[in-house]
């Protein structure tokens, strides 16, 4: 069909679709109506529907002053006496005064009218979440002052002279007295005795024999006298001088420590805890075979506390190694140990005997106890995620009373740490060994909100809806 139609055809099509002429006033001639240039039905008389959902004033609490007051009291209530008492148990009087001053500085009516928090996906990040690091905002906390811009490096001769002066200061006074005598040569020390031999009238052979005896005697005495100095200098050259030279500043003012790649020594004067040197006599009855000795020495904990800790073998798998002698079957066991107060250890051991592998993994888990950050001693800081192999573990913080909702292996890990409100999911692979490792890695990768706040130049204060969208009364109840 041709897209061009004649005027009679268009008029007929318009009449067939029910187009009515416009209403005319009494006595007025009917107005002529232009023919439509399309065959769609007219939408005259129907309201146009908006693409966006309208938000009524009643839902926002802005329809009347009474509704505004009710909405303000519901959304932004004041602290009750019970809440103030709970806060005073946690904060000092100065901090409580600052919290009350901050609450009084903000009018709840302004929050209702102007400062409404958006809930759409395109909302701006009004609240700071200290459980996440923003690479653009967060800077590394400076642990040392800025270097002096006027500092200059020493030249090669200045550095050599400074090093000799500094080395001379390290030598004790008793060794310096030995060095003064060592500066005298052998000819100067034996010159009077050689002169006495020449004047004695002895033969040349006897004189030379006496001189050789004096030389040997002087050398033996000199070596005996300098032996303490030699041993001390040798020990310093091997132990102290390399570290001290690295720590020596190469600047003229010598007021900035150099960046040393060597860690400082631990020293040798440690208090005797009764574990490093020997065991408690009462431990012999608990461990007559001495199988806990190494674990007790590494952890430094009493044997009774170690034996009462909770250890759970989570993963047991068997491997067969094909050799010319046949298949050699071995067991690999992964155990988890916890103190129920924020410390977790993981141990993996392998042996041809399953009981031996379980015992070894138990001891390794106790030796590898490490702290895990907990928020309010019940959950984690924010949401964390870790990936090991093809297994991904996502852990989310939950409000009080939520409980632990995770798989059975992750459930045991959270319970051993002392976390009570948390949820976890594994959207991808669920390999037993990788799931446990990914969970532990995610828990250890939590960001400390205090360090993040310090990096942003802010202070950690409890305000409403700081974490997880909760109120202070919910957290302190």
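Sequence proposed for the structure above (477 residues):
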């Amino acid at each position: 069909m041709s897209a061009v139609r004649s005027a009679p055809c268009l008029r007929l099509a318009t009449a067939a679709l029910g187009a009515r002429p416009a209403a005319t006033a009494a006595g007025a001639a009917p107005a002529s109506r232009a023919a439509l240039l399309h065959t769609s039905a007219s939408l005259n008389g129907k309201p146009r529907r908006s693409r966006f959902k309208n938000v009524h004033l009643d839902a926002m609490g802005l329809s009347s002053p009474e509704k505004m007051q009710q909405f303000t009291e519901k959304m932004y209530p004041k602290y009750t006496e019970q809440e103030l008492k709970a806060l005073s148990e946690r904060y000092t009087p100065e901090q409580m005064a600052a919290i009350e001053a901050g609450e009084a500085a903000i009018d709840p009516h302004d929050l209702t009218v102007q400062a409404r928090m958006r809930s759409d996906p395109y909302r701006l990040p009004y609240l700071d979440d200290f459980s996440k690091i923003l690479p653009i905002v967060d800077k590394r906390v400076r642990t040392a002052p800025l270097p002096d811009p006027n500092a200059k490096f020493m030249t090669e001769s200045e550095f050599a002279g400074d090093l000799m002066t500094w080395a001379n200061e390290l030598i004790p006074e008793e060794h310096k007295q030995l060095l003064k005598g060592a500066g005298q040569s052998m000819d100067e020390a034996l010159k009077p005795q050689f002169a006495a031999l020449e004047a004695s009238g002895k033969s040349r052979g006897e004189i030379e024999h006496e001189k050789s005896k004096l030389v040997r005697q002087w050398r033996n005495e000199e070596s005996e006298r300098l032996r303490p100095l030699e041993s001390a200098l040798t020990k310093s050259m091997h132990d102290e001088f390399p570290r001290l030279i690295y720590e020596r500043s190469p600047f003229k003012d010598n007021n900035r420590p150099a960046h040393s790649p060597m860690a400082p020594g631990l020293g040798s004067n440690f208090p005797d805890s009764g574990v490093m040197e020997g065991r408690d006599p009462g431990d012999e009855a608990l461990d007559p075979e001495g199988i806990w000795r190494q674990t007790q020495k590494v952890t430094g904990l009493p044997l009774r506390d170690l034996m009462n800790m909770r250890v759970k073998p989570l993963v047991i798998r068997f491997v067969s190694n094909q050799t010319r002698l046949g298949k050699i079957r071995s067991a690999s066991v992964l155990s988890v140990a916890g103190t129920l107060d924020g410390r977790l250890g993981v141990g993996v051991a392998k042996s041809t005997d399953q009981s031996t592998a379980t015992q070894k993994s138990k001891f390794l888990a106790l030796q590898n106890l490490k702290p895990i950050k907990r928020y309010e001693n019940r959950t984690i800081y924010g949401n964390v995620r870790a990936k090991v192999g093809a297994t991904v573990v996502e852990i989310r913080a939950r409000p009080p009373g939520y409980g632990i909702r995770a798989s059975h292996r992750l459930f045991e890990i959270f319970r051993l740490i002392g976390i009570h409100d948390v949820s976890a999911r594994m959207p991808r692979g669920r390999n037993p060994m990788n799931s446990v490792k990914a969970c532990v890695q995610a828990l250890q990768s939590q960001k400390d909100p205090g360090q993040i706040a310090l990096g942003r130049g802010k202070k950690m204060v409890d305000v409403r809806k700081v974490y997880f969208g909760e109120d202070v009364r919910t957290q302190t109840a």
